[in-house]
Amino acid sequence: MSLNPKSYKDKVVWITGASSGIGAALASAFAAREATLVLSARRGDRLEAVRTACAHAERHRILPLDLTETAAISTAADSVLSQQGRVDILVNNGGITQRSLVKDTCLEVDRRIMETNYFGAVALTKAVLPSMLARRSGDIVVISSLIGHFSTPLRSAYAASKHALHGFFDALRAEVYAEGLHVMLVCPGFIRTDISLHALTADGSPHASMDASQAAGIAPEQCAAQILAGLDRRKDEIVVGGKETRYLLLHRFFPGVFRRAIRNFKVT
């Protein structure tokens, strides 16, 4: 991380999934660098708690939002652009994960995961993108996962949604480069958040269990610091995590070994 962190004074930063975990940690990190925040997630009470815990709380705004409701996304974007005048940095962080076998998982669960993780991010980006292009300025940060590069058991739809993010936002990065916009994909491994508690099981009910690997992950504040460091350097993609990130190298250079290893990898 830079010894002289970049200031985001007067920058408008919109973060989805901001009520906990990586999103809340990013809110605190951006606020400490004097950004003005728009915080979105489904639960307004938790967003308010995050807002009041941030530096300069009075300048930040909460905007409850369900990423599966396309019409609500468009309305929310209109509201933010009208009140704030612009979005300098959009952080697509909202999402949900999964703990279920393909053979057991109902299609409605697959659809819900794709609607939240993929279509929600795409819809919000498309709603904000024209204003960024008009100003020839803007950063789009997409919180993907190591699972955006490879798949593991029990995460079929989650992996599909993250792979889809890479396909879409890699294309967008190439399209808007000449327009002055920056797109950064973030691939976290195990981060110590509650994401596994809310993971969907085969019938759509919550997993309601903290995975041991999740509990042993790095702190969300450490993850947020690395994300801002990557943004400062205008990186195209960063990987954040612990020993599990080595599986990315194994997948890339020894795919056969990886495919055998992942069959028995402890994924909960």
Any overview of this molecule?
It contains nine helices and seven strands; from the N terminus they run βαβαβαβαβαβααβαα. The chain is globular. The protein starts with 11 loop residues before the first strand and ends in a 6-residue tail after the last helix. Strands 3-2-1-4-5-6-7 form a seven-stranded parallel beta sheet, with helices on both faces. The chain has 268 residues and is an alpha/beta fold. The protein has a single domain, classed as Rossmann fold, CATH 3.40.50. Helix 4 runs parallel beside helix 5. Helices cover 45% and strands 13% of the residues.
Which helices and strands occur, and which strands form pairs?
Layout: E1 12-16, H1 21-32, E2 36-40, H2 44-53, E3 61-62, H3 70-84, E4 89-92, H4 107-135, E5 138-143, H5 156-176, E6 181-188, H6 212-215, H7 220-232, E7 237-240, H8 246-253, H9 255-262
Helix pairs in contact: 1-7, 3-4, 4-5, 8-9
| CATH C-level label | Alpha Beta
Spell out the CATH superfamily: NAD(P)-binding Rossmann-like Domain
Compute the number of helices. 9
Question: Which geometry do the CA atoms define?
Answer: globular
Strand content: 5-15%
Radius of gyration: 18 Å
Task: List low-confidence stretches.
Answer: none
- Oligomerization: single chain
| CATH architecture term | 3-Layer(aba) Sandwich
Query: What sequence of helices (H) and strands (E) makes up the elements?
Result: EHEHEHEHEHEHHEHH
The rounded distance between the terminal residues' Cα atoms is 31 Å
SSE-based structural type: alpha/beta
The major sheet is characterized as: 7 strands, parallel
Mean pLDDT: 96
Indicate the percent of residues in helices. Answer: 40-55%
Would you report the number of β strands?
Answer: 7
Q: List the strand order in the largest sheet.
A: 3-2-1-4-5-6-7
